[in-house]
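This protein record is not my work; I was only asked to verify it. The record follows directly below this note.
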Amino acid sequence: MTRTLKLVALLGISILPLWGSAQSKSTNPPNWYNLDYQTDGIHGISTEKAYELLTGRESTPIVVGVLDGGIDYKHEDLKDVMWTNPKEVAGNGEDDDGNGYTDDVHGWNFMGNANGENVRYDNLEITRLIRIYEPKYISVLPSTPLSEAERREFVAYQKMISEYTSKLDQANFGNLNYGRLKEEIDIAIKKIGKDIKEITKADLDAYKPNTDRQKMAIRMTKRELSDEKSFEDFYKELEEGVKYFRAQVDYHLNKNYDPRHIVGDNYEDASERFYGNADIKGPDAEHGTHVAGIIGAKRHNGIGIDGVADNVQIMGVRVVPDGDERDKDVANGIRYAVDNGAKVINMSFGKGYVFNKKTVDEAIKYAEEKDVLMVHAAGNDAKDIDIVKNYPTKYYTDSLDAVLGEASNWITVGATSSGLDGDLLAEFSNFGYRSVDVFAPGVKINSTMPESTYKEQDGTSMAAPVVSGLAAILRSYYPELTATEVKDIILRSVTKVDEKVRIKVDGSTRKVYLDEISVSGGIVNAKAAIEEANRYIREKK
């Protein structure tokens, strides 16, 4: 899972936000994604209206497994909603409940070792696959005799090399130029003599650059500032840009970098399950903490935000590095969450290539058999994922990628905005008539961040936990419903919007309705879902 901020296209580099990105100041009301369109004039999911319908109805706690990059379980708005393993004694070095995971009080981390060391950065899957195939195919010519299986691998390898080279060129360009831009801006900051929070456009106007490079840097910076974006906002974006491209070059696309030795497992053995440690926060908990807050930050406690679900327990399962997640860890994360009581699993991650789809498919089938609902972010490449692959996926396939079936317990979620700032469909959101099930708010979503802070972020990573929160409400107040029934209720109760949205196909822009680019054709609606659940229960009786 690669993650970046929505970088300014200062250097001719257009970077879409991948799996969650910080944003400039919002004009949306606080907690807008919980609001109601008819009452508030904003395309939220009517969470508060749903709870009005649930007044007087009893609920049971629902465990939601958050498979992500780490959660700050001590956050002021999350600490009261974290899942706690009732049979595990914290910090005693013993596997008290005998589940194979020592001291798993709030969940488990599959990217660390028993000594407390953790993986932070990893490659993209394309880099790992090239590292596997390169020794075999780097010297092969198109005319070289190969078996049918080898020929498929060779063709796939050639495609990977082309894409990898393009990514690496862009990363090197961005690393060099964003780094240079930051160097020039840092010189200006030092000469201006103010904190970045205090620098204004007037300060930049008054500043006298000494070199042509610095003149260009100041000109670029001034062009980015506005009433909604301060110098501080710009500088933070710039810092994240430098960080992103450096990680791309040093880790994500570096064929010589492989951190798996830190974990110490036998990576080739996909059946191996018992490795890792109990540190669910890890070295970088921003993304997972934000996701967890959307699902279930403590409601009506007078601090922070209100999550969607009101009787939820968040289980942290760390399987996602800064880079692409590994299939073995994802499969084990799913099984861990299922075996330890999760009824909903949120997966705000994804990648364009897969190493061992079979082991992930088997874990999804296991969750399906155990009546656990899976919610997955559609991805942020602005692509049609009916065509462009995005893993993991709800489709079970064989070794030739032929579809063998579809998981009945799976919801894929695209992202929408409030509708106040322009197009309803998030510009970055993936879509797909068959592959994306629903849409949910995923633009300028304010949620929890490490060390009891809060930030707005963008991404289908933010839309998926909105749906997970809704699923948790349904499973909490209607425990008799199965995972498949909850999925069907959510899809049947969406809000259909009589408004076309813009998508890009083959380089050109088209305007379409949501029912042309998704299964349900709408945005999830909590109030309508409760009404649909009530109707479903009556008819079932």
